[in-house]
Write a structure and sequence with these properties.
single chain; 157 residues; three-stranded antiparallel sheet; 4 helices; alpha/beta; YbaK protein
Length: 157
Amino acid sequence: MEKTNVMRILDQRKIKYNAYEYPHEDGVCVAGDEVAALLGQNPDQVFKTLVLTDSKNHYFVCVIPVLKELDLKLAAREFNVKSLDMIHVKDLLNITGYIRGGCSPIGMKKAFPTIIDGSALRYNTFIFSAGKIGYQVEVNPKDLSNIIKLKFSEISR
C-alpha cells in the first residue's frame, strides 16, 4: 500500500492507526457511504471532511459521519461566527492541498479551526480520508488532538 502524507504524519507523531485501501477509478471521488461499504465498515464510523468559509474568508474544517449532513448553524455557533458556507470544490485544492474525495483534516496547507462531530467519541476508532482518493486511516479520535487543534461537538444531523 502506498503511504500518504497523512500516514507519514501519523507515523512521525507515533500515533497508532490502521490504513485501508479501496478500489476506485483514478481521480474519481467515491461517495462516503460507498467507501464504508467497500471497506466493510460501519458507516457511522466513517467520516468525511468538509471545508467551509465565513463572510470574512476565514476557513474552517468539519469532520462528520458520511451519512450525515452538516448543520451549518450549529457549526457557525461552535466556531463563533455569524454564518458558514461550503467552499467551492474548485477552491479545495488551492486552500487545503487536497482534492474532493481525498480531503483529510490532517496535513492541510494551513492549520484551520477544526470540529469533529462528537459522535466519533462513541467509538474507540473512526475512519477518514488518508489524503488521497482510495485511502483511509482509522485512528482513536482523541489521538487527533496530538496533531491538529480541534474540538468535538455535535454538528451533524
